[in-house]
Each structure stands twice: as C-alpha cells, then as structure tokens.
Amino acid sequence: MASAQITDNPLLFAERPEWQDVVPLEQYEGVRPLAPIFYTPEYKDATDYFRGIVKSGEKSPRVLDLTENIIRQNPAHYSAWQYRYKTLMALNAPLDEELRLMDELAVKYLKTYQVWHHRRLLVQQTCKPAPELEFIASCLQVDAKNYHTWSYRQWLLAHFNDAALWANELEFVDRMLDADVRNNSAWHHRFFVVFQSGVRQGEEDRNDVVRRELTYVKVKISFAPNNASAWNYLRGVLDISKTPYSAFTSFVTPYCEAEPPQLDDTSTDIMDLDDPLPSQDAQLPCTAAIEFMADIHERLGGDSLRVAIDHWSSLANTHDTSRKKYWEYRIREALSNVH
Amino acid sequence: MYQPRRSPDDNYVTETSEVQSETELILQKHIPADPEAPVTLQKNQHLQFLARNLVQGFPSRYISQDASQPWLMYWILQSFSVLGVALDPGNKQKAIDTILAWQHPDGGFGGGPGQHPHLLPTYAAVCALAIVGRPGPGGGWDQIDREKMYKFFMSLKQRDGSFLVSHDAEVDVRGIYCLLVVAHLLDLLTPELLEGTPAFIASCQTYEGGFSSASQPYFSAEADGSTVLLDSIRPPLGEAHGGYTFCALATWIMLQPYLKLQEPAVNPPTVDYQRLMRWLVQLQGSDVELGGFRGRTNKLVDGCYSWWVGGCFALLASLGVGGGYGRDAGPGTESQDDGEWDDIDESVWNKLGLQGYILCAAQHPAGGLRDKPPKPADAYHTLYCLVGLSAAQHNVYPSPARSAKVAREWRSLPDYPNETLRKTSFLEALSWSEEEGGSHVLGGTANRVNATHPVFALTMTHTEGIMSHFYKQAIPRRK
User: Which of B2, B13, B16 to mutate: most A Cβ within 10 Å?
Assistant: First the structure.
C-alpha cells in the first residue's frame, strides 16, 4: 500500500525490532521546560526516534516511514518535512509516488504551509505541472479561498510559464467566479492571469483585453453590487490601464440611487453591456459606488471637489457611518489640497 | 435592542454571503443590550488562562504546535507584559533555559530542541528573551550566537531580495519581518543583508493595496550565460492579506534607514500608501460585526486581525499617511485622564469600535481571547487581541524629542562598521512613544493595557533593555 496509516503498524518505534539499532533521544536534556506540551505516547516515541535519526544523518527508506508517521500526527513539523525531502533526494525515490501520497495528505491537512511547499519541491524535480492544475482545482472545491492553494497555483503557472498551462486559466477563473462572485481569491487570480503574467499569444491587443475585463466586471457588479471584490477589481483594471475613472460616470450613476431603475413594459432582456443596470433585487445605494463617484469628482478637481465632498459626507453621515473617520479624512485632505 | 444593519447581499446568495450572514447572526448577540453599561476587560481571567498554559502546560491537541514552541512562549510572555505582569525569578530562569534549548548549533532558533533553525521561531525566541532575559551567564542574551545567526540569515538570502524561512522552505514576508526585527534587536544590520529587500517588499503589494505572501521573480537570460532579475514582472503570489500586510509594512518601515543611505535610484521601489490605507480601512467590520477586522476582502472578521490590520495604522501614520499623528507634548499641553474624549482624534479608523469587538465578542467567558464567538480561546488569539486592544487604546508615534534624547547618549565605538545604518535604525526603533493625552480606553481606566511597540510587538521597556545591551549604548530613562 502506498500510504501507511499510523494505525497500520500499532507498535511504537521503540517496540519494533527493525528499529532496535537506533538510539532515541529525549527532547529536553537537563532542562525542565516551561509551558510543556503533553505529548501522546505515539508522538513522543516517533519524535524521539526522529532526533536519533537526525543525529546519525541516516537517509534510508525506513526514514520515509518515520517522517510520514510524524507528519500525519503533526503536519506542521517542518523539520520532518525537510528531512523527508532530503531523504527522497538521497534515495532517488520515485517522486510520482510521493505526489500521490501528498494528494491524500493534502485533503486532510490543507491549511499547513508544509504540505504545499513539499509539493512545490517535488514538482520542481518532476517538471510535470499539468496534473497539478486538476489537483488544485479539486482542493478548491473543498476550500474555495485557501491561501496556500491559490498561491501555489499562481507559482506553478508563473514558474513553468508554459502556454499549455495558461491556456484554460481564464475559463477556470470564470467557473470559480460563477460559483461565487464574491470569492476575492478568484478575483485576485484573475488579475494575476490577465495583467501580471506577461503577454500571451492572442492577447497582444491590450486595449481589447482591458475592454473585455471592464465589461466583465461591470456585468458582475450588476448582479450583486454590494461586492467589494468586484469594485476593487474594477479599480485595479482602471489603474493599470490608466483609464480615467470619469469614463465610468454613466455606469456608476444608477448604483448611487436609492432604488434600482424601474423597468417599463418595453424593456427587453438584453443587457446593455456598456452600462449594465443594477438587478431589480439590488440593495441600493451601493456604498462602493458612492465612493467611486466621489473619486471621479476628486480627480476632476476644481468645482467637482464640492461634489466629491458631498458624496463623502453622505457616506460619513448616512451610508457608511462606521468608516466616518476615513471619509472625514478624505474631505480634509481634499480641502487642504485646494490651498 | 439595537439591531444594526445587516450586510446587504442583493438577494443574490453565494457561499460568501451565506457564511457572512451566519456569522452576523451570532455576532449581533454580543452587542451590549445597554450601550451605557460598562464593558470590562477580564484581566484576572486572562492571566489565569495564560498561567495555566505556562505552568501546567498545553493539552495534547497542541501537538500541532510542537514546531512552534517559541511562539507559545512568546504569546504567553508578551500577553503577560501587555497586562502589566512579570514572571517571578524562578519562572523567568526556567523560561530562559527552555528558550536556549531551542538554539541550533548552526545559528538561529528552531521550533523545539534539535529542530532546524527557522526565521519565525527565531523571532519568537529572541522576543521572548527580550522579555525574560538579561545580560551575563545564564541570562540568555549573551548565550545567543550572533555570528552564527548572521551567517544563518545570509544563507537564506535569495537573488530577488527575499529570504527563505528555513533551508528548502518557503519564501514569505513573515520571514523577512522576523529576520529584520531580530537583526534590529541584536545589532546585526548590514547593507549586504538588506540589499534588494525593499524592491521585493514593494513587489508584494497587490492591486487591492494590501500585500501578498511573496512575489515571483522572473529572470532573463543574458548573452554571457548569466541571468538578470526582471524589474517589470514580479507578480504577487496570493491576494492581499492582513497578516502578510503587517509584516510587509513593518519591514518597509525598518528598511527606511537603509533606503535613505542608497544613492538616489532611477526607479526606487515605492509603496502606494493611499491604496494601502483604503484597503486597511475597508477591512474594518460594520456595526453588526462590532467593528472587528477581517483579514481579506469578503472574508470573516477575526480577533487576531485587531493587531495585524489595526496595528498597521500607527505604522502608516509614522510615514506621514492617514492623520492622527502623535505630537510631543509642548509647554502648556495638559495630559488628559484616560477615558476623556480628545476631540482632536483624527485617526482614520474606528479605534473605539475595535475595542468594542475585543471586549464584547473576543473575550471568552472562561478566560483567554478568541477569533470570534463561539470559538474557544487560544494563546495566539489571546496575544493578538490584547496587542490589538493596545493599538486601539493608545497613540504610539515616533517622537522627535525622544529620538533626540536617545541620540545625545550615543557613543561611537571603535571599529564600528556601518555606523550610520545601525545608529539610525537604533534611534528610529527607540523613538516610539505613547502620546500623552492620546489614549482613549473604552470602559474606563481599569481596562487600560500597556502600550505596544508598533513594529516589534514588545513593550517599549523590553525593547530598550535588549537593544541597550546589544548596541552597548546607554538609554536615558523616560519621564
């Protein structure tokens, strides 16, 4: 069996005849530690033997058993992970098998750094990144915002920088955002794929790419306007493309109203992609839209500053009172810049 | 009873809005029924929680922290310090002896005896020693092998200015923060240590304004076979996150003396402070979330971000961003009693709101503090809620008067390379002061906790003690 549960062999290492030659070492010698942890017998046993192995520098197959035993009990034991990696390298062990073991462990221990970093080390050796995309996608089904999972995906794509790897990435992000338009990790990934990974074949017309992204985010905003991730993405795209915020005045205006616009009988189901309207169920006005409108006017300067200040005041006093101090700061800064 | 507005979901439910809604249902039960009734920081209960962990030890589920023993020690010791309590001499010595057992023969500290050296436990161990240690035999400070520590640091340095946290381990900004704090406390700063690091930090800022865990370097192949780090493409790995942001921003502050020494560069690395501030402000929860902080856009509030995010505002203010700047007391300035409102509190964030979250939602009824109800308390959340409370109560700022006072005592030592860098770093680290009259304690003076050094997350007193020793400089008493 590729994976050994610690219950597969219930004997402590101290009880196993094939480990008799190793001298287990106590953790603390001559020191009664403050704030001790109350280890289980299994954990104390395994780590006492690990200390023994580290001292002798042994790098053998049984060390793989021992380190696997430890990381199942404590997946954050980074020294066991490091030593395991060094042992795999010394033994020239089959890394595909190791990856299959890691597939199993990742399910249980998604949130530890070491599970993901070990994978990174292995894939750097195997140079077979493609199956990782499928694996990462399956992990994200369980935990859609796992930080290590997403940053591992970004590392994989950037490090190998292979056109075949990138090919379906936008589609992947689309699926994640269809599943949850408020998944900020997915929005960040989108920005990474579109704007922070060089220019790939077919994407050379950057104006076209920007237009596509702006349309995309406007449509997403229209479904659920009170979504900070989408508004942050919008700002990010405008900033990186140096598009003036004022180009968005007509889009943002309906989101600053108290109600979604009433559709009359002649309205059709066709959405205006230039200025998609807030859905009929939207809860308005949308705070992020008012802030955006304030920023449009601040950047126009001159008399428009008055309008910006009115918007910030409405945020401070009515729509976003918990951030009152920030909106008052924006007002003060705008006034002091006038002089 | 006051029922604040729930977060709008536009009648368009997703996993995010569902989880948010469930959380708000629980949180709003913790809004005090009577807004006038005093809320109390249960100091004794928290001290007992901490003391139990320190003396009796941790239950077996803490096996998951076996590679973080220095953290457990630091979280407990620093929590005691925030609450104004010191260990008795016997336990102090036991702490010192325990910490020294984690030092690795090759330099640096590991997560436990015999564990590989690692930047994060190194920070925790050295900070724990700042709290309990002293000069001389058995005191801990002089048993730190500084030369090996420096070699350990340089062995982790990468071409893009980043550092691995340990051999064959990951790069991330937490490690860089930990390294820089230790280098400050132990007088290990050199230009070669810091080269390229500012550019790496700057590259971790995302379009949202906060910072990611790391960035990816790209190299171009040159004609002579060498490779060159590309400036133009250094994408951040992972979204803007409160924990990484604190580490990146504090690191950026610590790099200022080094940056000032550089020749003016064509394209110096820069951080977009306005974008950062906007993101930080947006992370504070609404009234129904009791003003706690979340760590990422569209995720849930959590008590530990009280420090990671709440603590960023003092750092930004020290760079001249965001208002609420502390001022040295001039003649005629009266210091105010805690609890009196100073109408001129111009900080950009809702400090009282955060105090409300910590006191009403984060305190566990049985002692200790937590992420959010109904989670149990743990040592990590206890510390970061307490130092977060400290950041929300006080206005700690870099005081020109204090810096000048410390500078007057500075004595140049013979054979002192890199003096400008080290002296400037020393003065900046020690200039942080609690603004007189700048404290506002929700619930009255009994809830007051000690002020915290905004960069190192130690008390100013412990910072002075250890730095005075390692830099071999006298430090004048504060008033």
Answer: B16
